[in-house]
Write a structure and sequence with these properties.
three-stranded parallel β-sheet; 11 helices; 15% strand; six-stranded parallel β-sheet; alpha/beta; 314 residues; single chain; binds NADPH dihydro-nicotinamide-adenine-dinucleotide phosphate
């Protein structure tokens, strides 16, 4: 169901129980397709895609992400190169490492884990990565290519959202898409991707007025704010497709001693109204690493003059 305008609001709850978009299952399928392609690259061309991940500092959450990325990279049959640097690594040393990775033929993707320590200029480091190996899609050249529709490396989280939306909706032409959040990592690239799908796109942010009225117009709602449960079900258009990118950790004391992850959308009330919705956890999150692997394979193909795999790139 796309719009839902014809539904009698009184019968809405009885009729609308959202389809749960299972990001874990979709990510498993995506990683299996990546692994198949890796096997083909190895057998037909003697190529092994390689991903280098650079972590500066000892942030526990970042360490978990980096370990998980390394494990999933190896599981897909690719090479993983992990560079764990102390928090006081000078910017010059980091730039020198990026240059070495740019020149290393075994490395096809480079990811510098954010956030970087304050003494490092993150933009300078990200722009030092070769655009061809920029699997996070944060290099200014890839940002420009995405904006002008020129086959860019696309940031992993919005790419994962796009894959989920295409799988669920197919053709999105003419749909109203509202994106909450205008970050370079999620909101802005998501807007570019949905524009390219011929959606009518609105980006909302902290200064947006009448947010509830805006959200109620959305056939597609992407919430990427970082505020637990800020979108109640009452804001959601009946039948809308809701992607909840937010990852918010509720403090232990509010949750009976156990931390709990929730999204930016109040899942219980939104699921009564939406046509489809991603849960948190288990929705958009798992797609991010799957898309990182897909981007690495695509980079390996392009660097070696081969066509990137269909369906794993925008
Ligand atoms: P940022 O903090 O960079 O951006 C948040 C955006 O939300 C900003 O544009 C901000 O507006 C906007 N915002 C803040 N308050 C409001 C409000 N009351 N109403 C409307 N908009 C508001 O966050 P990110 O984009 O990096 O991440 C967003 C969320 O997504 C976080 O929870 C993060 O953890 C999660 N995330 C999940 C990923 C995944 O793999 N699933 C990957 C990346 C992020 P303004 O610009 O005006 O300040």
């Amino acid at each position: 169901m796309r719009g839902g305008e014809d539904i009698d609001p009184g019968r809405r709850n009885a009729l609308m129980t959202a389809k749960i978009l299972d990001g874990r299952a979709f990510a498993d399928t995506t990683r299996a397709r990546v692994a198949e392609h890796v096997t083909r690259l190895r057998n037909d061309h003697g190529l092994v895609p390689g991903l280098a991940v650079v972590l500066v500092g000892e942030d526990p959450a970042s360490q978990v992400y980096v370990r998980s990325k390394g494990r999933k990279t190896r599981e897909a049959g690719m090479e993983s190169f992990e560079h764990l640097l102390p928090a006081d690594t000078p910017e010059g040393d980091l730039l020198a490492l990026v240059e070495r990775l740019n020149a290393d033929p075994a490395v096809h993707g480079i990811l510098v884990q954010l956030p970087l320590p304050d003494h490092v200029d993150a933009a300078r480091v990200l722009d030092a990565i070769s655009p061809a190996k920029d699997v996070d899609g944060f290099h200014v050249l890839n940002v420009g290519r995405l904006g002008t529709g020129q086959g860019a490396m696309v940031p992993c989280t919005p790419l994962g959202c796009l894959m989920l939306l295409r799988d669920h909706l197919g053709d999105m032409s003419g749909l109203d898409a509202v994106i909450l959040g205008r970050s370079n990592i999620v909101g802005k690239p998501m807007a570019q991707l949905l524009l390219a799908e011929n959606c009518t796109v609105t980006i909302a942010h902290s200064r947006t007025r009448d947010l509830d009225a805006l959200v109620r117009r959305a056939d597609i709602l992407v919430a990427a704010v970082g505020r637990p449960g800020m979108v109640p079900g009452g804001w959601v258009k009946p039948g809308a497709t809701v992607l909840d990118v937010g990852i918010n950790r509720l403090p232990a004391e509010e949750e009976g001693g156990k931390t709990r992850l929730v999204g930016d959308v109040d899942f219980a009330s939104a699921a009564e109204v939406a046509g489809a919705i991603t849960p948190v956890p288990g929705g958009v999150g798992p797609m991010t690493i799957a898309c990182l692997l897909a981007n690495t394979v695509a980079a390996c193909c392009r660097i070696n003059g081969l066509r990137p795999p269909e369906g794993l790139t925008p």
